[in-house]
Structure formats: structure tokens, C-alpha cells
Amino acid sequence: MRLITRSLVLLIIGGLWSELVFGAAPDGQEDICTNPAVFFCENWENRPLGPVWNFVGVGGYKNNGWAVSDSITPDIVNTERVDGTKAIRMVTGANKASGGWIDAAFPNGAAFRTVYWRWYVKYSPNYVWSPEATKHNETVSFDRIAGASGADLGVFNFTSNMGFRTPNVVVAATQKDFVAGNPAAAYFPPNRNGGFSQFDVSRWYCVEARITMNTGALSTDGYIQGWIDGVQYYEYPNVNIVSLHGDNPTHSGFFLASYWNCIPGGPDGTDCSRSPHPEIYRYMDNLVGSTQRIGCLGSSPSPSPAVQTPSGPSSVIVQ
Ligand SMILES: [Ca+2]
User: Fold this and answer.
1) Based on the number of CB atoms within 10 Å of its own CB, is 236 exposed (0-12), middle (13-18) or buried (19 or more)?
2) How far apart (Å, rounded) are the C-alpha atoms in residues 136 and 17?
């Protein structure tokens, strides 16, 4: 599943940012960023236009700054936005598998068993979905023994797999069923409120994932929920999310990918001769990480349901 090889270098510069905030959030961030439960914010408003490379490692309010893989893309644009004037444009070049990734460690070295994270996403009018996997965003989770030099145990959120456009709220390449050769069991597709068939192009969506890691490597006390435009389409209590590299896995950062798996694949899914596509964009804005439900801009989200009927991902047929 995970075809990106990378050496994660989390650049942390700058000083301490005051948590004592009154009124509007600093750096032009959205108001919810002043909530004590919110630990991460990025809406690109205090970032320069052009390549993200321009501000690699530069932090801000509840933001440690980004590590960047490519000097050209992704970039900050003013042609699309949810708030303010700017958004990030994730670029997948014509007949390419990737246009670069960026990632950020949580401020103050924080790591959490449970994270909620919400962002807005919009696909360009010419966007096409991969016949294998269209990546999206991921939580970063390291091997607890090896640390940042070890394997990334993160889980992808709102990805699409096997040529189908239905987004799966979590795809974990280190989930036990995935490792055992049954990747569909780790997809966690929409299973509530009539399901959600696909993202359309040329419109913004508000998406939010809640991921509670399992405590034991093989235990099934993880919990997954997901919302699109404030509607809960995903509900998976009692699941195993990460199975390798020990007990008590945690989330420690966010990762934004432009990756698009090509067939037949080549060594890293980079031979796109049999899966040609144009240059395509995925815009994103208003990224927030929290230990509580976030909701969409201008909304008051309902709390997470307290009691749910157990249903593991293996019982769901992937469409
Ligand atoms: Ca913005």
C-alpha cells in the first residue's frame, strides 16, 4: 500500500507560542484554533504564495512548520480558498505518481492515541482517480522503539483504492489484515447514513476523521469515525488499526501526499505508461487537529455517539 519511500525530517524551528489567546486566533487562523483541545492549525493565510519550499520549517500558532520533499510543488495559490485568500495545491504531474509531499510534527512533540482532524478538499475539474490508489492525507505514527528512524505506521484518510472513487476513511498498511494480504479489510469504507459514493470535482468538501488507535498490537479496541460535510458516514468501533511494531501506537504528525499509484507500477508505482493522466490538483484549506470533535466552519458539531454496535471492517464489502 505505502509506496512512498522517504526519510522524514521534521524541522522544528522557532520558539514558543503563547496558548493564552483572547479573541481571534493569531496568524489569521480560524477561531476554533483558540480552543484548548485544538493542537494544530494551518489555513495558509500567513504563508507566501508559491512553493511550500519557501517556508519549509517555518512554524506559527499551533504549528511546528512543515518538512517538504520537493522544491516546486506543492504550492500555495490564491486561485482557490475556503477562508481568507489562500489554499494549498497538491500537484500530481501529468503521467507522474507524485508531485511531492509535506508533513508536520505536532507542536511540543505531542502524540495522541486519539486524534480528530478536519480539513477542506477540492479536486480540479480534470481530476481522475488512480486505478490502484489515490492518496490523500495521513496521520504519522512511528515505531515506538525505533522512533523517527523507524517505519511510519501512519494511516491514510479519505483515500480511494482499486479504481473505485469511494473514499475510505482509514487505510493502514500496517493493519494486520493488510499485512496478511487482505488489504480490503483495512479500508473502512462508508457504512452509515446511506454511504458516500464519491468525491465530485470542482467543489469543496469538509472532511473529518477520528482515529483512536488500538492499545495492544493485535487488540481490537481502536475506533474510527468519519464525517463529510458534517454528516457521519463512517462508524467503526472495536477495530484494529495498527498491528506492527508494538503496543500503544500514537499519532505524532500530519502528512499531505499528492501520490497517485500508477500501473503496472514499476519499483514504486512510478511507471505510468499504462495509466496516463493529465496534471491534476487537489486543493486543501483549513486543516485542524484536535482531541475533540471539530466540525465544519460555522457549525456546532454534535458529540460523538457514546454507544455503537460493533462491526469490524472485514464484514463490509468494498464497493
Ligand atoms: Ca485559507
Assistant:
1) buried
2) 29
The confidence band for 318, taking pLDDT boundaries of 50, 70 and 90, is very low
DSSP 159-215: BEETT--PPBS-EETTSHHHHTT-GGGG-----STT----PPSSSEEEEEEEEE--S
pTM of the model: 0.85
- Check if the beta carbon of residue 158 is closer than 8 Å to that of residue 121: yes
Centroid of ligand 1 to alpha carbon of 48 (angstroms):
12
Complete domains list, the chain, with CATH: 26-315 (2.60.120.200)
Q: Give yes or no for a contact between 196 and 272, defined as CB atoms under 8 angstroms apart.
A: no
For cell 476513511, name the residue: 169
The Å distance, Cα 87 to ligand 1 centre, comes to: 5
Q: What is the mean pLDDT of residues 276-301?
A: 94
8 is written with which cell numbers?
Answer: 522524514
Q: What count of other Cβ atoms lies within 10 Å of the Cβ of residue 79?
A: 11
CB atoms within 10 A of CB 81: 21
Give strand ranges (E) for the chain: 38-42, 50-51, 67-68, 75-77, 87-92, 101-105, 114-123, 133-134, 137-140, 155-157, 160-161, 171-172, 204-212, 222-228, 231-239, 253-257, 280-290
CA–centroid distance, 102 to ligand 1, in Å, is 17
Average pLDDT over residues 22-31: 83
Find the 97 Cα to ligand 1 centroid distance in Å: 26
Q: pLDDT, tens digit, for every residue of 147-188?
A: 666 666 778 899 988 778 899 988 777 777 777 888 777 889
- For the ranges 81-90, 184-193, 242-251, 252-261, which has the lowest average pLDDT? 242-251
